[in-house]
Structures are given as structure tokens and as C-alpha cells.
Design brief:
This protein has 436 residues and is mainly β. It has two domains: 162 residues, Rossmann fold, CATH 3.40.50; 259 residues, Neuraminidase (6 Propeller), CATH 2.120.10.30. The chain contains five helices and 29 strands. A five-stranded mixed beta sheet has the order 2-1-3-4-5, with helices on both faces. A four-stranded antiparallel beta sheet has the order 8-7-6-29, with no helix packed on it. α3 packs parallel to α5. The longest helix has 19 residues. The radius of gyration is 23 Å and the shape is elongated. The two termini are 42 Å apart.
Length: 436
Amino acid sequence: MQLIARAAVALTCLALLSTLSAASAADEPTTSVALSAGGAKADIPIALPIPKGGSATDEFYTTLKRDLEISGWFRVIDAAAYTEAPGTGIRLGEFDFAAWRTPGAAALAKTEVQSTATGRRAEVWVYDVAGGVKLGAKAFSGPTTAQRTLAHRTADTIIRLITNQPSFFDTRIAYVAAVSGNKEVHVMDVDGGGKRQITSNKSINLSPRWNRVGSALCFTSYVNGNPDLYVADLAKSAIRRISARTGINTGCAWAPEGDSIALTLSPGSDSDIFTIDPVAGTQIAQITSSPGIDVSPSWSPDGSKIAFVSERGGGAQIYVMNSDGGSARRVSFQGSQNTSPSWSPKGDKIAFVGRDGAFDVFTVNVDGSGMRRVTQGMGDNEDPSWSPEGDFLTFSSTRTGSAHIWLASVDGRHQVQLSTGAGGYTNPHWSGHLSW
């Protein structure tokens, strides 16, 4: 039954491509296939031949291919099934569509790479194979060192022309990596490449969180012995401490407008949620004051509410309250240890971690209904964070042994490992859309 369903979806995509692409071929505004969001996507069979002027091992091609594979939209057809000779032209009239119908391609992305006086140029032409027409074309230029960026922009173009949806390749993921016995904050592209180390203080650094515009990260560090809160200005490569209050200064979360940071402080014997100024570090307000722990704040997209973890009802559970405090309502009701809430950018769901033998990722509607499991039977899965459109989640998982950063569609159907290397990668947090 599953195979029949998948085949039906693929045939539907093929029919839609043939029906909707004629306007694009005539240089009208592009009309593309729009499939359902939220992870319920089809594996559109796409052919991605080696770029004209490039090779299968070029960083541009390997990055582009991986982008399409992790996107959740496509099944990249094995190159062994291609019958067209390498180096064949990429424009209409320069190749035969029949060569791409043989391996069963619904879509075709042909690329060309060239050296220029200032760097490299990449060009992509996207086609509906069944209809034999162009969906669109675009070219990008950049320095020789920008091969990955050119590939990400090309992948974004392919996805937009075929699905009429944005990609997430102009985003980054912040995370913590174990380095020589320490835990340092890093940033990487969504495909796992382009890694950049942010801290190098040879201490324990935890829970990096992006601000809305992607210019800064807040995180907790033990570099001075106490769990204090720091902010890294990424443009200036500068790090400053903004909260060194007695007790813990953890679990930071930027308000959507960036004018405050919510975090957990423990000025007494209890831990509560406060807001502080992100520049001066001065306290703005105390948001919770109930007995028991209150930790891990996460803002709603409009900034009007905060989800958090509390033991006020017995056991760690997810609650929601107005961002100025007041009464809170519980939204998780199954399990006795539910933590790490992350509010969807769409505003309708909260992702969290629940313990069911192992730790797994779940989602629940903000009114407490519709709880759904994203992971199961795949090691410990923790610290979920949403993609900008709210269709995907990133999280850490031990399913392959050591902890790595993974991506999953919100329905759990599509799951792929993003980070590479020895492992020990935790605390991921997904940025919003950034400039290329």
C-alpha cells in the first residue's frame, strides 16, 4: 500500500509539472507545482547531471546534490541511470528530453559552471521532463571561495521553480560540539558544511540561541566558573557577558523584536523565568514566581506568550503564559518528564522532548490538543528547533551512536543526519532566513 501511495504521488507531481509549466516556457511569471507543506511532501524524481564545465567531485556539485537530497522534496536519480553524454548543453534545443524520460525523471536541473575574472559563475536551467518545457533559469556569480553559497542559491532556485516554496538553505544552525573534552559553540550551514567555531574558551558552553535577524547568539558559559549568560556579536566576532547573577543564568531566548531576552535565574533557592535587556543585561521583569522549577522559555512568534517547563503540577511539563507573566496553562498531559519547548514560527504548535523510555521529539497544538510523535525507536532525540517556515525540525540524536544534528519533516517522514564527523553535537538552534 505504501508503494502504491508513493507511486501515485509521483505520478501526480508528473502530471502537475506537465500541466503548469507552459507559462514558464513562454517566459511568463513562473507557475510551479505547489505541494502540501508541513513535511507531507512527495519525493519528486529529479535528474541532476554533472555541471557542464564541472565535475562530480566539485564542491559546487556535491553541495548542490546534498541540498536537494536533504530538502524533503526530491529523490535525486542515481547518475548510473543517466544516458546523456557528460558535457551536453543545458539550454532548450541543446539536449534531448527522451534521454531523461528513460530513467524516470519528472524534473531536470541542468547546470553550468565557469571561471570568471573575479571568481566563479553558476547557471541553472530547470525543466519539466514530461512536458519538455522550461520552468525557469537563473545565474549567480561569486568569488572562488563562495562555491557553497553558489550551490545553496542554485538549490533554492530549483526548489522554488518546481514547488513554488522557499528553501532553508539561506539559514544556519548553531550548536554545541565536544572539542578536546570541552563544549564550544559552533555554527554550520544546514547541510552540515561551512562550519565556524564561535567560542574557544576551553570551557563548557551551552544552549546557543539566535536572535531574529541572525546577527547574534546568546548562550550560557562556565568560563568564569558560574553558569553566566553571554552574547556573541557575529559580525564583530565579539563576545560579552550580560548576566552573571548569583546562581544559574541559563536557557536564554530572544524576544521576536530583539528588545529583551528571557532566561532562567535562581536568585534564591528556586529557579524562575525573568527578562533582561540584551545590551545592558539589566532586569526587566520577573515572569514566574511559583514553587518548583520554571525553566526553558520559548517565545511565541508574535511575542505575546512564552512556553516554558515547570514542575508546579508534579513532574516536568510544558506550560504557556502571557509574556508579561500571570497565570499559566498546561499544554502537555502525557508523560512525567516533558522539556525543551520550541514554539513553531507558524504559531500553532510547540515542539518538545518527552521521555518514553528514551527521549523523543513530539509536537502539540498550543491549546494542548493533537500531540504527535516525530521520533521513535531511534536513540535519544533532544533539543528540537523549527525551520523558519515551521515545516521541519532540527534536533540532536544518538541513533547512530554519538550525538549528531538531525533534520526531520514535522510529520517525521523525512529524517536525515546533517552533521558529520566524530559526533558529540548537541543543543541545535535554527536561525531565520539570512542574507546569502
